Amino acid sequence: MKLIQRRRTVNGSAKPIAAFSNRRLAKVGAAGAVATAALLLSGCTSSTSATAAKDVSAVSPSVVHEQMVIQTGKMDGKPGWPKIVPSDLTFAAGTTVDLKIVNYDDGTAPLSPVSPYGHVWGSDPTFGLVNGGSETVDGKAVTEIANNLVSHTLTVPGLLINIPIPAVPSGQKSITVEFTFQVLKTGKFFWQCEAPCGSGSTGMGGAMNSMGWMQGYINVT
Ligand SMILES: [Cu+2]
Question: What is the architecture, at CATH level 2, of domain 63-220?
């Protein structure tokens, strides 16, 4: 049987990638003929080609840019009540979400030394998460924030996402954390901050257990 090599260009040089028998090519040829006939029947013109190109782009993942701001209690008019605004995000499943969180809070809410919430989570394939468990802090990629430097976290247990957010360093007005992810399944997922930034002796009261302050929802439609 005669074998025909297909080639592709890798780094400028052609390299063989596969060999096909004439029989397999015949199958491809038949499918191609059907497609060509369909195009001819539909009056193949440049507009048909444009439609085909549009279809291809329609299956490409779209990217949405979302921003959340962490206000101090002083900024939101309720001293001692830091707040993540907006508290709810909504986007379509399969969308790549580029989430920017701008923190204006220079206070830390240290996590216990054994707490897992200093680490960035977000690489569970169950949800199609694509970010690989890292975030950027003022543009620098990191996989964790030291537990004693954490100011807040955005933690979504139902998606195994955890985004630790450091306090604003002295001399800066804010600090920006960016986290890119993609969720393939739909649902309404509760999030909350896991750093004890609220009131009371444990820091778990007030804003920490109030919807719209340190709690909210991620809606994947
Ligand atoms: Cu918090």
Answer: Sandwich (2.60)
